[in-house]
TrEMBL record:
Its EC number is 2.1.1.197. CDD domains: AdoMet_MTases. Residues 45-144 form the Methyltransferase type domain. This is Malonyl-[acyl-carrier protein] O-methyltransferase. Transmembrane segments: none annotated. One of its GO terms (molecular function) is S-adenosylmethionine-dependent methyltransferase activity. Gene3D superfamilies: Vaccinia Virus protein VP39 (3.40.50.150). It comes from mine drainage metagenome. Keywords: Methyltransferase, Transferase.
Amino acid sequence: MDSKQHWEQIYTTKASDNVSWFQEHAGQSLELIHNTGLGKRAAIIDVGGGASRLVDELTEEGYSDLTVLDLSSAALDVAKQRLGRHAESISWMVGDITNVELPANRFDIWHDRAVFHFLTDPVDRQAYVEQVMRTVRPDGHVIIATFAEDGPEKCSGLPVMRYKSETLHATFGDSFRLVHHQKEAHNTPFGTVQQFVYCYCRKINS
């Protein structure tokens, strides 16, 4: 089973609030987005946003230029149905972030919670970084959340990479300046705790 089939199966067989990564409120992500200081017209992409409720909260706050990308069309359908008519104002994209075609210099904020740590192949990680370099505007904001060094070794039956803030930042290289990092103890719907690390970087204007 390839990655797309895997995630389509997850979102067609499980409720979106019955997966380990579910958040009722994306507080950490929202705080970091607010901390960018950008207005409500900022162009934001949520990579691997799927059925996440971050897009609901951004819409409620008045952000008007939102893109949600996910490998699973079923995950996106969950979010569209939940948002109802508000879904019409959002750009929905199905694709693999390592090879999907995205417009150059399009986004002010790149947000990813729990996609990057699934990229265990260095080639895929490099392709991801190149996507960020190409599609985020100069001085743009990059928010990445992965499992921390003491987080799970697997998620949804798949192996993952675990990071410290400095190793996560180093993966992106000197083209990005680390602004802030912090850990989060995520409480899953199953009563367990997963350790995440968030890194907020600025793309250096070169």
